[in-house]
Specification:
The chain is about 75% helix and about 0% strand. Helix 5 runs antiparallel to helix 11, helix 7 packs antiparallel against helix 14 and helix 19 crosses helix 20. The two termini are about 20 Å apart.
């Protein structure tokens, strides 16, 4: 495979994107994409399923270890293949065109626009805490935010990365305040509380880990913009390792703060545990403080998903693997950014906002995406076996133990989804299969 032999060269003579993103922006992209709204709402379900405070904390640790293992592994692949497109490129080089296409197909038509739409709607919904809005007004605000961030990222990837930097710092401020004050001022000390879970034993602990894995999702997004990193061979592993480490520490500490402030029964009953902690510590003003923090958090996650997500259809178009590839794979001459891909994905996201179907579509696509994430992590064995000549600026530590931990985590997500939500899993596979006729048509017409 030529790209693996010459990973540092330009892709098939296409105009390349500018390398404007440094290590700090890359780290903030990882942290900003992962820490969205989940950390503010997930603690209750995790502790409920885990059955006790200590098991709940262990579930967050286990989820972080799995995410770290997958991240460390993908970092080696990303450093060896430092090209725009991330997981799409890894699948293409290690497994072949058809697997890469199916991953990219689901990402392009459902996951990227669906996740963007979902985040934009959550942003608008959270904004109603400060400004009352009707349902249609919320949708219009959501669409405005999509095109606002699209415009910023089209004008300058560097500018979009800077916004991610400030948004990530902004979202960490209320989290740090909750952690600091919760640990110092908390009086509940629920660490030794009796079991409260509705599911007992390993099944409950497994369900708790599953909840944390969704909260850790997003770290792989930085690999999608590898072609725009100043030093991708070094900065991909560094940003993933540092970013996931920061996230792991933040998640553990904020959950310890939660159970140090609120009684265990209150944590389990709460739908917004972090907000309730703020109210307990600071009174009614605490709710406003956290509401503002959530808005900033979602804003950063939305910017990150839009910035990295569109690089996958762009990479597919550059490889002539999508309909209208000539249009979608074009780099704007003035801004040196993938303008056309941004516009198409933003229009799709806006349609999902208006239809209200994005949550269902994203749920279906998430299962399929995890199939490919697991394949990508397992690809380390293919890379080391078949492509020993590739330069490796970074190698995963404790090989093969670390990759196996990442694979086990991915398989666990898939098996759990099949057992607990069989219908969605089957529908997700069905959506993936709809890409097959498109793939074979493109292959046939390109000959």
């Amino acid at each position: 495979m030529e790209a693996l032999k010459q990973a540092e060269t330009t892709e098939k003579g296409n105009v390349t994107l500018k390398k404007t993103i440094g290590l700090i922006e890359a780290i903030m992209l990882v942290v900003g994409m992962v820490i969205g709204s989940g950390i503010f709402f997930k603690p209750s379900i995790v502790f409920k399923n885990a059955g006790s405070p200590m098991m709940g904390i262990l579930a967050w640790v286990a989820g972080g270890v799995i995410a770290m293992a997958a991240g460390l592994t993908l970092a080696e692949i990303g450093a060896a293949i430092p090209k725009t497109g991330g997981v799409f490129v890894y699948l293409k080089e290690l497994y072949g065109d058809i697997f890469a296409f199916l991953f990219g197909w689901v990402q392009t038509v459902i996951y990227v626009p669906g996740a963007t739409a979902a985040l934009a709607i959550v942003f608008a919904t959270q904004a109603t805490y400060f400004i009352p809005m009707t349902g249609m007004q919320q949708k219009l605000l959501a669409i405005f935010m999509i095109f606002f961030l699209m415009t910023i990222n089209v004008i300058s990837t560097k500018f979009g990365a800077k916004i991610q930097l400030f948004a990530t710092i902004g979202k960490l401020i209320p989290i740090v305040v909750i952690i600091g004050c919760g640990l110092l001022m908390g009086k509940a000390h629920s660490f030794a509380a009796p079991a409260v879970g509705t599911i007992t034993g390993s099944a409950g602990f497994g369900a708790a880990i599953l909840g944390t894995l969704w909260a850790y999702d997003g770290w792989q997004g930085v690999s999608s913009i590898a072609g725009e990193l100043k030093n991708p061979k070094k900065d991909i592993p560094r940003s993933i390792i540092i970013g996931v480490s920061v996230i792991l520490v933040v998640y553990i500490l904020i959950n310890v703060a939660v159970i140090n402030v609120l009684p265990m029964t209150a944590v389990v009953a709460s739908k917004k545990a972090a907000s309730d902690v703020a109210v307990s510590l600071f009174g009614s003003g605490g709710a406003s403080f956290i509401a503002a923090g959530i808005i900033i958090s979602i804003f950063g996650a939305l910017n990150g998903y839009l910035m990295t997500g569109i690089r996958i259809p762009f990479a597919m178009a550059q490889d002539k693997m999508l309909p209208f590839s000539g249009f979608l794979g074009k780099v704007n001459e003035k801004y040196s950014t993938p303008l056309n891909t941004f516009v198409v994905e933003s229009i799709l996201a806006s349609l999902y906002v208006l239809s209200g179907s994005f949550d269902i579509l994203t749920d279906l696509a998430t299962f399929v995406i995890w199939i490919f994430f697991t394949m990508a992590v397992a690809g380390i064995f293919i890379l080391r076996t078949k492509f020993k000549h590739i330069e490796r600026p970074y190698t995963v530590p404790l090989y093969p133990i670390v990759p196996l931990l990442g694979i086990i985590g991915g398989v666990y997500v898939l098996v759990s989804t099949i057992l607990t939500n069989t219908t969605n899993a089957l529908y997700g596979i069905g959506i993936m299969i709809t890409g097959l006729p498109v793939y074979f048509y493109i292959k046939k017409t390109s000959k």
